[in-house]
Amino acid sequence: MITEISALQRRLGHADANPGHDWLNLVENVPQWPHPPGLPAAPAGTPFGYAPSQGHPALVEALVKRERTVSAAAHVDEPNVLVTAGGMHAIGLVLRALAARGYRRALHATPVFVGVHDLMAAAGMTPRALPLTGTPGDLPLLLAHVDGPTVVYVNLPHNPTGAVLAPEYLPVLHDLAAHPDVFLLYDAVYDSFDFRPAPCPAPIDLAVSSQRMAVVNSASKSLGRPGERVGWVVAAESVVAGLVPRLEWEIVSVNGAAQHAVAAALAAGNAPLVDAVRRGRAAFARAVAGTRLDTPLPPGGSQLWLDLGVADVEAFADFALHRHRLVLTTSANYAPALPGHIRFPTGMPEGLIRRSLGALAAALDDWERR
């Protein structure tokens, strides 16, 4: 049972309660638009009417177009898409539906976002972290831990490490989706942020052809619009049909104005947002070259997973908060919490990245002299 706020929220609360300071907020890994695009207003009456529980037809159509383009999906259509109240709601909705069908185990990589871990536990499942590598060797490891109905959660590009989907991993996903005791839940919220010359798209066509798989995504990350709280599930028509009544029971439908805004954002595209993250990664690499923070850039994601080499990263984060006005996301935001790590966002303006890295280096030096 969750009885207290996270360390992340505690530090944010401290900063909010002390507005007179110049805080360097490195908490959020949602990429920031360099120049937020103007979008058309919602039609009159949109915010005040219920949208269909599956999603507003205009947004569902836009999401189908998006998956056909971004994911090179040839077989996705409107009945394969469900609009949710954000990516976390999409994950939780699928987990709760599976728990009602008797799924009691969930397997995930090390580490996983703690919110996903907690959703698994809240659904009545027992989460288990495995040392997955994104290579074919994962399949025997995963199947060795399948004992009855089991959810396998795969998140690529991975939060927080930036690992990406490799073509040689596709047979692993096919075998998992075909296993009678496995439901494969594939989290693609960072699929826009794969910086390889030839990215491997999310396996949408596999999901729509399988009865034991779903792909989730979110406007928060792919469009840099966390405020709308819009996500989506892509799955076989029968899987989506089974989720729609649960969504109706839980929230009736997703906010109509938010759905309209996301449909407009999809039409406008996210190229400037992706370019901003690419520039942020380059700014990070230049700033840390030859320093103690020098870290190879991963192939994907909108953040970096930095090992600071400190024994107690939570104590250091509190020290950096109070002494250097740095608000950090530590490994406490993940499960299991790996010692010494923080998450550093690359979707910020380049000047803020350089300034934040300077403050982080100063905080580490000060920490060692304390």
Descriptive account of the structure:
With 370 residues, the chain is of the alpha/beta class. The chain contains 13 helices and 14 strands. Strands 2-9-8-7-6-3-5 form a seven-stranded mixed sheet, sandwiched between helices. Strands 10-14-12 form a three-stranded antiparallel sheet, with helices on one face. A two-stranded parallel sheet has the order 1-11. Helix 6 links the parallel strand 6 (150-155) and strand 7. The radius of gyration is 21 Å and the shape is globular. The model has no long low-confidence stretch (mean pLDDT 93).
In short:
The protein has 370 residues and is α/β, with parallel strands linked by helices. Helices cover 41% and strands 15% of the residues.
Topology readout:
Layout: H1 7-17, E1 24-25, H2 57-70, E2 81-84, H3 87-100, E3 105-109, E4 112-113, H4 114-122, E5 126-130, H5 138-144, E6 150-155, H6 170-178, E7 182-187, H7 204-208, E8 213-218, H8 219-222, E9 231-234, H9 237-251, H10 256-268, H11 271-288, E10 303-307, H12 313-324, E11 326-327, E12 329-330, E13 334-335, E14 341-345, H13 350-369
Parallel strand pairs: 1-11, 3-5, 3-6, 6-7, 7-8
Antiparallel strand pairs: 2-9, 4-13, 8-9, 10-14, 12-14
List the defining traits of the structure above.
370 residues, alpha/beta, seven-stranded mixed β-sheet, three-stranded antiparallel β-sheet, 41% helix
Number of strands: 14
Radius of gyration: 21 Å
Distance between the termini: 36 Å
Spatial strand arrangement across the major sheet: 2-9-8-7-6-3-5
Q: Biggest sheet: strands, sense, closure?
A: 7 strands, mixed
C-alpha geometry:
globular
Strand content: 15-25%
Low-confidence stretches: none
Mean pLDDT across all residues, rounded? 93
The proportion of residues forming helix, as a percent range, comes to: 40-55%
